[in-house]
Amino acid sequence: MSNNSERGAAAVEFAILLPLLLMLVLGTIEFGRAYNTQITLTNAARDGVRVMAINNDPTGARTAVRNAASSVSSTIPDSSITISPAACTTDKQVTITINYNLATITGIAGPFPMKGKGVMLCGG
User: Where exactly are the transmembrane stretches of this chain (predicted)?
Assistant: First the structure.
């Protein structure tokens, strides 16, 4: 009789711990995705600002941002990419900012607003 009650106790303990374990695993996955997205957006902004600083080409800079951030989203609209100032003059800084809302896999929380930013001196 004690063998059956031990099996039942193990099942109850597992049922109590399972939600906690799932929350830990899913939380780790969501955090990893958010961290990867943040790094990708920052690198995409740096790629775009490099194009802007060297070539003074806003269209090329936006294209560079989209190409570098394609693993995050294949459709980043122009309204999410801000270039300031619009024209790059020698010895001035140009800034590119990307705004993105990251939807979660689980749907429990979010979406989380994220931002990537790159700054570089014009003229290379």
Answer: 12-31
- Dmax over Cα atoms in the chain, in whole Å? 85
CA distances from 38 to 86, 103, 112, 116 (A): 24, 13, 11, 7
Which residues, including other chains, have CB under 8 Å from residue 44's CB and lie 6 or more apart? 64, 65, 66, 68, 69, 72, 98, 116
Q: The sheet that has 112-121: what strands, in order across it?
A: 81-84, 93-102, 112-121
Give, as one character, the DSSP assignment of residue 52. Answer: H
- Looking at residue 83, its pLDDT comes to 96
Task: Give mean pLDDT, residues 84-88.
Answer: 92
Phi, psi at 36, each rounded to 5° = -65, -40
Residue range 20-59, pLDDT digits in tens = 999 999 999 999 999 999 999 999 999 999 999 999 999 9
* Tally of domains within the chain: 1
End-to-end CA distance of the chain: 80
